[in-house]
Amino acid sequence: MEKFRSRRSRPLCFGRVNPVSTLVLPHSSSTSGAGCHGTDVAEAASVRISPDRLAPGSSGESTPGGGQPNTGGSLLANQNMVLGPSVPIRRLPNGASPQTGPPVTSGRSDNTSPPRTMETMGLASEGARFVDAGLPTEVVETILNSRAPATRKLYSYKWNLFSAWCRRINVDPVHASVSHVLTFLQEKFSEGLSPSTLKVYVAAISAFHISLEGGLSVGRDPLVTRFLRGTLRLRPPVRTRVPAWDLAVVLQGLAEAPFEPLEEAPERFLTLKTIFLLAITSLKRIGDLQALSVAPSYLEFAPGMVKAFLHPRPGYVPKVPTHVPGPIVLQAFYPPPFKSLDQERLNLLCPVRALDTYVHRAALWRKTDQLFVCYGSPKKGGPASKQRMSKWVVEAITLAYDAAGQPSPLNVRAHSTRGMAASKALMSGVPIGDICDAAGWSCQHTFVRFYNLDVSSTPGSSVLPR
To answer: Residue ranges of the Core-binding (CB) domain (predicted)?
Structure first.
């Protein structure tokens, strides 16, 4: 297999195809090697988080758009909107796909497992209702696929729990009365379940339950509606606005051993660093990252390794299907030649550099064209599941804290990278609409209600440019 050199490149960005603009950092200098590269991607919306120094608390002043790169000691700099010309693309060589195992030719290149028995059994009652109503089998299958596979699996699990409870009291779960449903929900509420979890139970029961008198579903019954409203008053949701971890500390740790030097880093740390940088700079869900491929034409590098374009596999449907999945656009960060030691150190956080190194290192053991593959036995080279990739992101955060000499944070979730990156971008002046477009949120309310964090309360915020 042809050997590729891992080249150093430029600024951290999270990207999504958008015909309007590109969200990028202000150019620190027009001179090569002094911050952002001078070429921008046309028809791609990207949000970049750009660290200026790796030591939280270091001093200096930032001069966005000036002749010098930001030196405010922060790990995140301002973002502005810039339109730029398109860049010629260098594709991975055809016939030289970076993999050693047999290629995956199926459209379902994510290698997801077929529906489990539990899920099939759980959907049987819902499908049977439609068949009894006279609908053809093909129509029923299409209707059942209106829900995402993860949703169907979750509903199936909740319904099985309700069915087991009904059997204990000799009640047919399909024809259970509202009184039985409310009794079951009250037991779960007394066990400490949150109102949001109870809503999932209601949705699952409504999916499989025979409609009540008057044609109402369980979820639309007035008593069930009032019960759920009562749980909200008795146990209102509590959502912390303070991040569980500091991005500045994590980026500092990722520039230290054992993550560097990247070309010599063990497979584990190379994988962890790459997936974290892609998660934080793309604003994408883990499912979106799992859909990426290294097959020819699905992973592309611009000449000079100044940009990388990652396309989802054919037929991939994102969580919000109204958003057409476009390529993730990564822009290189502080490429050589370096004008200072700070720039050379900042280049250690370049996502294009990490991706290039990972792709060619993983080619030695990969057995699938999915981008992220397992690095340890017994599944080495096989496609990484979403659960495993989520654990990698959490592990990258905790190990980066260790490398930075900080105690590991508690209650870290992989999904928190979306809120962290989006909140940093908003604080830096990026329009909220562009953030939602890049993240794939259907409306601004989703970000404001669930993801907006008070990033100014983190230790690294003290060195952010004002």
So the answer is: 134-213
Which among 80, 76, 33, 26 has a CA at the least distance from the CA of 280?
76
Q: Which is it for strands 328-331 and 80-82: parallel, antiparallel or unpaired?
A: unpaired
Q: Can you list the positions of beta strands (E) in 306-429?
A: 307-310, 328-331
CA–CA gap between residue 156 and residue 163 (Å, rounded): 10
56 touches 406 (CB < 8 A): no
Tell me the one-letter amino acid at 187. E
Closest CA to 461 of 410, 414, 431, 427: 427
Inter-residue contact 252 to 80 (CB < 8 Å): no
Residue 89 pLDDT: 44
Contacts of 324 (CB under 8 A, 6+ apart): 17
pTM of the model: 0.66
The pLDDT tens digits of the residues spanning 403-434 come to 999 999 998 999 999 999 999 989 888 899 88
Closest CA to 400 of 249, 286, 283, 274: 249
Q: CA 90, CA 303: separation in Å to the nearest integer?
A: 6
Helix (H) or strand (E) holding 253: helix 247-254
